[in-house]
Write a sequence for this structure.
């Protein structure tokens, strides 16, 4: 019993230590944001490796999810004779939930883990250390461009996911299953509101972008500089990101849509 | 290894695609394109019971959408709900004695305001109040009435 | 601050380490080491693996903070400087890491150009001239378009050396420059260290445990064991030292003051324990 309490205390202490470190690290990044204006090219390069290279998986997943959603929802709605609502049902689930959340999960797997591994390996091979000895701050030179690229890419990717998903359900619903073309779009436009659904979805994905990028760069920067340590940090990035995104999604949903 | 020019172009395409997706969501998916406040006029009506009516519920004549509910308030003095609706400017020729009622689309569908055109000379204009209204049809009340009738005839 | 630097321009002792203590977590690595490094000389810090040699270099560069004691470089206490002054001081220090630590996403040329681009506003032709000059000095001008992954370990170290001297530092630190290299590469690196030290007027600090090479190149040697300085002097002094520990290290004897066995309970007890 006493051992168990000790274990609990120790792991609690460990969790708080990590959280404190991560928060200080976030503050440190915030303080250094201004350097991006001096080196905008660094950001472009990272937008390429974080954003552009994630586009393919996001677009393909969005299309597939949209098509499956169209098919499944049609089968349910047609029993009630309300298959004209396919448009709004799909659009609402994509813009409010699936777009931001699935994009964040895919992003942490595709780009977040790569960020962690890259930074962790730079640390393990002394590249960060050597930068420090050359009087170049690695947080400003290496970490901040990657973090900001992640924060910018996430809402753009989420918007692509939702848009492509809606097109996917349009292809299945209107093209294959014979839902009325006009009803699909007009019902959707009628039910989906810009500020309530779309803007809130973007705010969500923006928040996810900050959290996932933060976790990814912190795990890399704080990784134990060995092969095993970098591997563990990469796993942590994906797992912690998933928990953080799902938890944060619940809180944000409650705040945004809870009053109705 | 890509040259830095290719990378810049690809990043440009990426950002443009993201913004295009936003634009599509805003214009094609949401209601912003179908409704601009300045092309409409405001009409009010008071109801005893609005049922499940919400802001952004449609206003229809003969099943065709001509406007949208923009505000629902409760009037403490008249003890009634005041519904504000915006009607598209192109439908400016609605007789001023038209009646407003709250209907339900299908058995379980959404609720909307239906206008029954009257026969008066003048038309509804900005700030008009619709006098003749009929409240929402509430399922529980109807069932209650049906049950009392049934028990009455049963004796 | 600049004035302060100038004042100490001609001190004989460039780096002074006073009673340095450092612990990583609960393991004490340095327990009061004091070292003086003379201007213009090659000083080597020797000791067995894991005795805190690399840690010492990081302490001099201000990357780590000691628990007790001071490091004074050019008259400035490294650990009482603020971030800005520390970065300014680091510009006159160069360090070559054991692995080379080249930036893997940049070519050899860009690696050497990196510190120049970061710290100067020189024009592109001037940077090119400087980079080619540094690469010529280490004999790798022809390899400038290669990627670091295409280099052998010895070449990577030479590129790292070219990058470290790009800003013409006053102090050059080498972390295990000879470890794991073939004899030819070791010869090349030794020649380079001596050449750069004498021709550019640098002060060199080497951390190593390769006795033969160190004795060949060093002007002054410090021996560290268990966090203390246990021997000091020029190579011939140490070769004829009376200290048992220094003798064991210099002659590579398997047993002596540094025991062959990791501390353990008596062997016979350990064997009997299983049956008991």
């Amino acid at each position: 019993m006493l051992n168990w309490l000790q274990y609990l205390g120790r792991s609690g202490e460990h969790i708080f230590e990590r959280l404190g470190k991560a928060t200080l690290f976030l503050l440190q990044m915030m303080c250094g944001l201004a350097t991006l204006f001096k080196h905008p090219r660094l950001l472009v390069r990272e937008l390429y490796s974080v954003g552009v290279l994630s586009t393919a998986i996001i677009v393909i997943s969005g299309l597939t999810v949209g098509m499956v959603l169209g098919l499944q929802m049609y089968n349910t709605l047609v029993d009630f004779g309300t298959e004209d609502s396919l448009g709004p049902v799909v659009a609402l689930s994509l813009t409010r939930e699936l777009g931001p959340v699935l994009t964040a999960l895919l992003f942490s797997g595709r780009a977040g883990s790569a960020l962690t591994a890259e930074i962790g390996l730079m640390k393990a091979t002394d590249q960060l250390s050597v930068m420090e000895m050359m009087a170049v701050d690695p947080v400003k030179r290496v970490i901040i461009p990657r973090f900001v690229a992640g924060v910018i890419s996430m809402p753009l990717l989420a918007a692509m996911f939702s848009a492509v998903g809606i097109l996917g359900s349009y292809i299945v619903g209107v093209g294959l299953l014979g839902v009325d073309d006009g009803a699909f779009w007009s019902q959707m436009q009628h039910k989906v509101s810009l500020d309530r659904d779309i803007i809130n979805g973007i705010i969500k994905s923006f928040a996810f972008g900050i959290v996932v990028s933060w976790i990814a760069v912190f795990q890399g920067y704080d990784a134990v500089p060995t092969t095993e340590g970098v591997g563990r940090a990469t796993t942590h990035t994906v797992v912690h990101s998933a928990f953080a995104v799902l938890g944060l999604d619940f809180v944000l949903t409650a705040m945004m849509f809870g009053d109705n | 290894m890509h040259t830095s020019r290719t990378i810049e172009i690809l990043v440009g395409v990426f950002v443009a695609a993201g913004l295009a997706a936003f634009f599509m969501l805003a214009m094609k998916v949401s209601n912003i394109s179908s409704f601009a406040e300045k092309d409409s006029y405001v009409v009010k009506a008071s109801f005893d019971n609005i049922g499940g009516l919400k802001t952004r519920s449609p206003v229809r004549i003969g099943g065709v959408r001509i406007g949208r509910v923009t505000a629902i308030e409760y009037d403490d003095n008249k003890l009634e709900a005041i519904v504000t609706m915006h009607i598209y400017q192109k439908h400016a020729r609605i007789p001023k004695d038209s009646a407003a009622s709250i209907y339900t689309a299908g058995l379980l569908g959404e609720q909307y305001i239906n206008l029954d055109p009257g026969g008066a000379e003048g038309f509804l204009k900005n700030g008009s109040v619709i006098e003749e209204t009929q409240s929402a049809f509430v399922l529980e009340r109807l069932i209650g009435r049906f049950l009392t009738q049934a028990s009455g005839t049963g004796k | 601050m600049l004035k302060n630097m100038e004042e100490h321009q001609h001190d004989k002792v460039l780096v002074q380490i006073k009673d340095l203590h450092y612990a990583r977590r609960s393991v004490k690595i340095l327990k009061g080491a004091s070292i003086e490094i003379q201007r213009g000389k090659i000083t080597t810090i020797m000791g067995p693996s894991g005795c805190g040699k690399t840690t010492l270099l990081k302490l001099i560069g201000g990357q780590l903070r000691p628990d007790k004691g001071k490091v004074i470089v050019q008259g400035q206490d490294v650990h009482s400087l603020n971030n800005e002054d520390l970065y300014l001081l680091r510009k006159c220090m160069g360090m070559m890491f054991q692995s080379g630590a080249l930036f893997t996403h940049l070519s050899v040329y860009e690696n050497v150009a990196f510190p120049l681009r970061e710290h100067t506003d020189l024009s592109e032709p001037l940077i090119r001239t400087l980079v080619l000059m540094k690469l010529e000095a280490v004999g790798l001008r022809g390899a400038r378009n290669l990627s670091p992954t295409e280099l052998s370990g010895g070449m990577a170290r030479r590129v790292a050396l070219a990058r470290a001297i790009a800003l013409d530092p006053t102090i050059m630190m080498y972390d295990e420059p000879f470890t794991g290299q073939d004899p030819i590469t070791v010869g090349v690196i030794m020649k380079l260290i001596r050449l750069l030290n004498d021709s550019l007027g640098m002060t060199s600090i080497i951390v190593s445990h390769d006795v033969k090479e160190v004795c060949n190149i060093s002007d002054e040697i410090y021996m560290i064991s268990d966090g203390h300085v246990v021997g000091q002097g020029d190579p011939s002094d140490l070769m004829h030292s009376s200290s048992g520990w220094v003798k064991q290290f210099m002659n590579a004897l398997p047993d002596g003051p540094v025991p062959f066995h990791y501390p353990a309970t008596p062997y016979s007890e350990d064997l009997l324990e299983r049956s008991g």
Q: What stands out?
A: The CA atoms of residues 23 and 29 of chain B lie 9 Å apart. Chain B has two helices and eight strands. Helices of chain B lie at 4-29, 139-154.
